[in-house]
Amino acid sequence: MAASELYTKFARVWIPDTEEVWKSAELSKNYNSGDTSLQLVLEDGTDLEHKLDPKTKNLPYLRNPDILVGENDLTALSYLHEPAVLHNLKVRFDSKHIYTYCGIVLVAINPYETLQIYGTDIINAYSGQNMGDMDPHIFAVGEEAYKQMARDERNQSIIVSGESGAGKTVSAKYAMRYFATVSGAASEANVEEKVLASNPIMEAIGNAKTTRNDNSSRFGKYIEIGFDNRYRIIGANMRTYLLEKSRVVFQADEERNYHIFYQLCASSHLPEFKPLKLSHANDFLFTKQGRSPVIEGVNDTQELCTTRHAFSLLGISESNQMGLFQVLAAILHLGNVDIKDRDSDSSTIPPNNMHLTAFCELVGVSYQDMSHWLCHRKLKTATETYIKTIPRLQATNSRDALAKHVYAKLFSWIVEHINRALITSVKQHSFIGVLDIYGFETFEINSFEQFCINYANEKLQQQFNMHVFKLEQEEYMREQIPWTLIDFYDNQPCINLIEAKMGILDLLDEECKMPKGSDDSWAQKLYNTHLKTCSLFEKPRMSNRAFIIQHFADKVEYQCEGFLEKNKDTVNEEQINVLKASKFNLLMELFRDDAKAKATSPTGQPPSGGRTRLSVKPDKSRPGTTSKEHKKTVGCQFRNSLAMLMETLNATTPHYVRCIKPNDYKLAFTFDPKRAVQQLRACGVLETIRISAAGFPSRWTYQEFFSRYRVLMKQKDVLPDKRLTCRNVLEKLVEDQDKYQFGKTKIFFRAGLVAYLEKLRGDKLRAACIRIQKTIRCWLARKKYLRQRHSAITIQRFTRGYQARRLVKFMRRTRAAITIQKWQRMYVQRKIYRQKQAAALIMQTILRAYMARQKYQRLLRDTKAIIIQKYARGMLARRRRKRCLRAIVYLQSCVRRLIAKRELKKLKIEARSVEHFKKLNIGMENKIMQLQRKIDDQNKENRGIIEKLTAQESTDRVEGERMRTELTRLRGAKEEARNNSNRVMTLEEELERLRKELSTTQKEKKTIEDWAQKYRDEMEKMVAELKEQNGLLKTEKNDLNRLIQEQGQQMTAKMARVIAEETQQLETDLNEERSRYQNLLTEHRRLEEKHDDLKADIALSHPPKPGHRRTDSTHSSNESECTYNSEFAESEDGSRAAEDVTRGMDTSLTLKLQKRLTVLEQENQSLRNELESKEDQFHRARARDDAEHKKARGAELEYESLKRQELESENKKLKHNLSDMRQSLLGNAGTGAGAPGSPAYKVLLDQLNSSCEELDVRKEEVLILRSQLVSQKEAMQHKETMTEPSHYVVDVSKLKGSDELKQAYVGLKDSNRSPRFSRKPLEGNELLSRLRSSTPDLHKLNEDGELYLVYEGLKGTNSQTLFLTWLEIIMDMCSVLELQIQLLETQLQAQRRSYDGEVEALRGELQNVKEENNRQQQLLAQNLQLPPEARIEASLQHEITRLTNENLDLMEQLEKQDRTIRKLKKQLKVYSKKIGEMGGQGEGQTSPGQMVDEPVRAVNIPRREKDFQGMLEYKKEDELRLVKNLILELKPRGVAVNLIPGLPAYILFMCLRHADYVNDDQKVRTLLTSTINSIKKILKKRGDDFETVSFWLSNTCRFLHCLKQYSGDEAFMKHNTSRQTEHCLSNFDLAEYRQVISDLAIQIYQQLIKCMESILQPMIVSGMLEHETIQGVSGVKPTGLRKRTSSIADEGTYTLDTILRQLSSFHSTMCQHGTDPELIKQVVKQQFYIIGACTLNNLLLRKDMCSWSKGMQIRYNVSQLEEWLRDKSLMVCGAKETLEPLIQAAQLLQVKKKTDEDAEAICTMCHALTTAQIVRVLNLYTPVNEFEERVSVAFIRTIQTRLRDRCETPQLLMDHKMIYPVTFPFNPSSLALETIQLPSSLNLGFLTRV
After folding, report:
1. How confident is the model at residue 979 (pLDDT cuts 50, 70, 90)?
2. Cα(338)–Cα(392) distance, rounded to whole angstroms?
3. Do the Cβ atoms of 1532 and 1587 come closer than 8 Å?
4. What's the pLDDT tens digit per position in 1563-1600?
5. CA 1003, CA 1604: separation in Å to the nearest integer?
6. Facing residues of 37 across strands?
7. Is 844 or 217 the better-scoring residue by pLDDT?
8. Which end of the chain has fewer CB atoms surrounding its CB within 10 Å, N or C?
9. Is the dihedral of CA 203, 207, 208, 212 positive or negative?
10. Beta strands of 1034-1130 (E only): which ranges?
């Protein structure tokens, strides 16, 4: 490709810029070969002429297409150069993506802000994923290292490097957290927690605040995390490099010393730190020099607590911790020792120096010795030893050197103990190393530390270059691409300059050995040796004490001052001897002899260099070299340790993390291009780009190339072979074949070729778009023309019609005007006439009205005077009458009161008489009836009198009206006569007066007319105002009514909303409680499995010895009773293993266990005390209720006694009537069939006698039992306890002790001795209805047929009267007995209701206690997890189990008492039934009529055959066979296909029914326990088989439903048939086992969900996201070195159809197994939640999936899932709602994202997504084609502003492990147990049907 093809108009390029480093521009003119400049347009519209270099003619860098900008991998860019890398990083950083791949390197930019991307959910999302399938992340690097370690059996290393403040330490910390989370620990010592706990310790003693970083690591470390053969963490090992000791004594401005010093100063107020004599950090020289003692947002006191906790976690005792703090405080005090000049050559310390005294006290040394040797030094010659004074400056340096040396020793000691805590005895199989080392550094003044750091980075860069080169070579060889040598930068010359013979380090060591060596002489040696021989070494122009080295990143100038001193690292030996003489144990341990230190230290390295190197290799040094090793310089030691590090890294597979610091001001998400470019050059990222660009950086598979560039092919070019098609197309499109190479699976492209292909593709698509636009615009223009033409015609038509209508309208108006004028003139004339007429009428009216008013006023005055006189006289008369009446009434009251008192005395005397009471009772009904009749008669009389009075009153009223009318007429006649006599005179006078007034009236006429007009106007105005006010009032009224209605509606809606919210909240709380309980079950199951594994391991490690071993038999029996998950033969082995473990524990462990045991016992005792207090409260409440109940029952008992007396009198009356009837029968009997002695007569007589006897017996039984129940009730009110909470429960043993009740029972048995009375009698109502029916079925009246025989005998006697008399007697007897039975039943039901309420309250109290107990157990379990000791978890678990069993024992005792109560209830029901029995058994009784030879027909009563009762009997020794054949060895597939669903559950329940039937509690318990344990065992064995888990979930639920359906509880028996009700359990209440089986069903359900999840997990991402269900919609973008999974469906790739088939398989399997439909709905809902959560989580972590076309694919896939739900009729199960977040995410990818209206629509639409998820999708949105636009940062900020008020968790990913709480709705079975047959295939021949 020629440059003219690429540098065309509108092509975009990068040009250099002083501020932004690189600036984007666009060509405004095509470039032609030979042009010396380019015409450019900047982004701000400025024109620019860019001059080309006349020598090189290099054109500016081309920009990548927009679709490649923001790629996850920099190697995916078509143009690989510095501006492209910088721009891509900036774009991603602005979108808050801090991680980017660059080939094998992960580039991490420090955001200086806490991001929610490091949680456990993110770790789980990256676990198990390929590195290229997810967005770049430090967790992806960790997963890649972990997978390669497991797959390749090769050790791994993660190299984290970067500048100070770039985030190296945080990245290394997160990498270690990832390993600790995904791998777990091989032992129970929580090694992963210890590994993570080392971080706060190392940060406290090795990190400090610098100007660039608040938490800068001032040392390098390499942590090896060890794994066993199962790749679980077993330990760790740490090496440290080059601690910056100078920071202990000096800090620059705005910097701090190591964090630990400030933590101690901030905590100096604590009591334990008082002896350290510390104060504020500003009071100490070593902590105040930087003048920045506080870091914003950091609490040093809290940080010290974290550090101390980490020390404790790593096994460092409290005494050692205080010793460490003591040494650190001594260092601070040493810095404050003030040394003063004595003279020019000597110095002195003032006596009793406070800080020196504190130092000596803390380290335990002599004050005189230390003060002496701080100001003196010892010089040794060959013959003598001199003590020389030193000046103040040297003394100060000696003091600082001692402080640095002590801190270095302390640092090494801490690292050594951390390694001891992390080391393990388990053999290490492999390891992953994490190297957190300083990056390339260059400051204004660079010294020895920067020299060593840059030397280490040179070595690491060389290793990095070799590794990248090696990977490139392997890739080319694997694809069989011709290999050409790639030129890359080799920094071996720079390394040789530093470490080779006569290199810088050699010359430095040599100078250190010289007696008078100095920095200046060493610098001259460097100049003489390397200045002319090495091009990488330079000398500064203006200095003779510095040198310059050309490193791979930049030139660095080093100052020689201090090199020799730092390399020697000398300290006064006499000062060390003083410290060695200390009595402080920790200090003595720090300053052991080097030989001893080397022999005992795990590092094998002397700590004198201020760094610790840990190695697992044995020490191979020869004896005698100790002193030599001790004299090694710091540079030599560092070179050796660096060589060992490189050897370790070369033996591992490295993974690189390059940390970039975006700015120097620690501003969040602020990108400084200059600083970023410097670091990119220094860390090797650009070198990686250059190596990649030198070869074939872009690599596409054939399928991806074909899918992307299919538009460039013609139809004839497409061949069946994709490779051949791609080859042909490339050869046509690109003539230069060196630009690409064809590999085995990929096509390799040179840099820029993909951009060229994208340009061709864009041009082709643009041409196609233009053609489409042309066609559409033509169609739109023609459509517009036709629409305009039609509109013009329509407008013309309407205009002409309008003009015609106007003409007609004018003619009509003219004619109407003439008519209006005619009528208007007529109206005016008529109005004038009417006005005149009205004026005359008004005058007349006013005159006449005046006269009438005068007359009316006279009459009114006369009438009112008369009325006043009438009322005054009446009032006086009434007053007199009231006074008389009041006096008479008072007199009558006094007399009547006297009479009543006398009568009352008589009545009281009579009331005390018993006879009178009996008379009253006997005559009560008659008196009441007489009184009722009297009242009726009086009412009738009253009604008659009232009617008469009403009629008389109406007559009087009519007569009065008539009289008043006549009186009025007469008065009028009289007045008329008087008026007529005076009329003539009056008229004459009136005529004269009128004449006089006529003139006056005429004068006033005008005035009146004016007044009338004025009045009319005022009235009209007033009416208008009133109307207006009325309208306003109406409007206001309507507004108020509307407001009231609206408020009512609002209140109604608000109340409905509040109720709905409360209901939803309650449902949410219920689901949370269910979820919490089911999570506890999951944890319990996990602990059980762990316990089983531990027992198996212990059994393998401690095989049982031969011989007899005694065990605790009581323990085993209790275990079988109380524990439901014990195995058949594991209790003895488990106890032995526990004994072995306990025997092996050490003393400290025993003490800890005893302490823990004491705490648990105290908590258990507190729970018991609380239970006792609850019992006391219950007793007090019960006593109070009993007292109230006794008062209320007193009146009822009196009433019942009266009723009983009345019944006795009625019985006596019936008996007397019966005897009279018998005498009459004997006396009036005639001859024939009805004569005495005849068969029929004898039958009737026997029946009457037996009925009489039965009546007497029943009466006695009723009276005795009634009295006994009352007495027992009163006695039991004082004997209630927690074990007997019901009032109506009768203790059988006490009943048997009552003589009176014994007699009652004996009489009852004697009366029932005849077989006729053994059957259940008919109720009284039923008997009466049958007797009174028109055609009574006499066969049914008595099952023995005796009444039928009586009836047949009576038919032959023709004695109808006798038969009717007998029927009446029987009816009376039945009525009496019916009254007695109803009375007793009413009393029992009332008592039962009251007692049931109290029992329910008691159960509620017990349930609260149980919940409190469970909560305490949960707290204990959480506390036990806090101290992660190595070998105590098993023992602690044992103690927890023991205490839990004790609690279960208490609960079981309560439940046993409940069972006793229920048994007594059932016995009481039996006794109540016996009271109501009225018939007996009569199978063997012979009728008396059959003894005589008379023609009486005999009745044969057939015996019913015995039916199958739905039970299965088995022998106890066959229980194991039953469980084995029915559970352990059962094949679910055969059972599900051939037999009825749930058959094993039915069989087990039928066996359980038989055990209940025979009342064998041991058999019931062992059968249920064996069933539960066997199901657990088969699930543990085959828990990954969906069919097995589904089968046993269905059978467990069916077994649970059977236990409920046949439990006898009313709530579960509503749908039972009568036969099923008979099959209910009769002896045992299995409610507690129902709870256990429900818990087992929950565990099986969770296992089923996990099994489904493991099957669906690999399918979800591929089928829902990657597979193109709609082919051709999604475009494939170029990929980088990190391969992603292809979205093209290859063979073996999961598709959406695969997911749907798997879902159908799950559904059909569950349906075949007979799973409850409601349970299937819950399973489907969980399946869809897993699909939606996994899809959404993967979408949120993959930038390549966030595009418009992918949103369309997702919505189509979701629609297919919804269609599947419709086909299975599962739309109402809630599964669709679980996909709502995914649906909204897909919609978010497709909606417009530009304006504020779009933002509002997005906020309204995405209510199921969190703010973090919405922002994440918008940030990840990536255009696949050039025609799509990116989401602007301003739009994203608008979204964040609008969603700021949302109350939600900041969690980004959905928890796909979350399981909805499951419920098991009761589903009774209609299958009859007696119809179930046992198939022979189950081998259950030992079961017997009962």
Report:
1. confident
2. 10
3. yes
4. 999 999 999 999 999 988 888 899 999 999 999 999 99
5. 112
6. 51
7. 844
8. N
9. negative
10. none
